[in-house]
Write a structure and sequence with these properties.
The protein is α/β, with parallel strands linked by helices. It has three helices and nine strands, in the order H-E-E-H-E-E-E-E-H-E-E-E.
């Protein structure tokens, strides 16, 4: 990190102590993790105290860490990229679970200080609650309003204290949250016009799931240069 961010990191550690945890970065950016019970206090200080001055909330993102860091394929004869999660090697935690892993769902806040020309990423895990929930930061940064609605819509994360927490990308009859890792790739329902009812209606999905498999690495003369035909012999 640059000297400016090293200074900011030191100020954050001095100000918040054990309330924050520094997250390692491979690209020189500063990321901290905060317990959800400390979110409002830390966020308020980051915005209001002049040594931080993070007056702008640039984005709020939901994250689903289900099976994070695990490859769906373990093989020496196929690539481990370019495939879909249509093939599931093990059961996943469904939306109907009594509770989630404490570090499955997270909310990430991207902050900007115009005063100091610095940026900060702050991550908060939602805990084991189902549905996952954290406090809304709309009263601290008004720009969080639609960002939090998007995270609710896509991940099903509830933001307590939000003034109008409704879906913003999917419609009112949509079932589930499409950015969750256990959301079915073909969805749950499909929409079509029903001439009998004279309106658009929901019905069960009629398409069949399609699995995309990895590209197979074949050991034949297409890939071995020693077996190529030069065309001159």
């Amino acid at each position: 990190m640059t000297d400016r961010y090293e200074t900011l990191d030191a100020r954050i550690v001095e100000r918040f102590g054990e309330q924050v945890t520094r997250i390692a970065s491979s690209c020189g950016e500063l990321t901290i993790e905060v317990a959800k019970d400390d979110l409002i206090a830390v966020a308020t200080a980051l915005r209001s105290e002049p040594e931080f001055g993070f007056e702008m909330l640039m984005d709020v993102c939901g994250v689903d860490y289900l099976l994070y860091g695990e490859s769906e394929w373990t093989t020496s004869s196929a690539t481990d990229s370019g495939f879909s999660r249509g093939v599931q090697r093990r059961p996943v935690i469904l939306d109907e679970a009594d509770q989630f892993d404490a570090r499955r769902f997270a909310v990430v806040y991207h902050l900007l200080s115009l005063r100091h020309n610095t940026r900060l990423r702050m991550r908060v895990f939602t805990g084991t609650d189902n549905p996952p929930r954290v406090r809304s930061v709309v009263d601290i940064w008004n720009s969080a309003n639609w960002f939090e609605r998007e995270a609710f819509d896509m991940f099903g994360i509830l933001f307590e204290g939000h003034p109008d927490l409704r879906r913003v990308l999917t419609d009112y009859g949509f079932i589930g949250h499409p950015f969750r890792k256990d959301f079915p790739l073909i969805g749950n329902v499909e929409v079509s016009y029903d001439p009998v009812k004279g309106r658009v209606a929901y019905q069960p999905v009629s398409i069949e799931p399609r699995t995309l498999v990895p590209k197979v690495i074949r050991d034949d003369n297409r890939y071995d240069e020693q077996l190529w035909d030069t065309g001159n012999e």
